[in-house]
Target: Putative glutathione-specific gamma-glutamylcyclotransferase 2
Amino acid sequence: MHGLQEPVWGIAYNIAKEDVDRVVAHLDHREKDGYQKIPVTFHPQDSSIQPWQLIIYLVRYCISASLVPYLKLLRRA
Model:
């Protein structure tokens, strides 16, 4: 997936410095099944704001949401 040049639309959140560790720990736990952390350059829609680096959680594979409960059950076995 690295090297793709297609734009991806989304929202970037500015997390207060004192909350970064807690928020990242929560996201790392929530997105642990099937996601990977990827550093990207974020280009704001407002071109007067300089782009900056951030981390996104990118799905490693695409599955139907209806299968997720079954996959989690299979992993417990």
The beta strands are 35-42, 52-59. The radius of gyration is 16 Å. The chain has a mean pLDDT of 76.
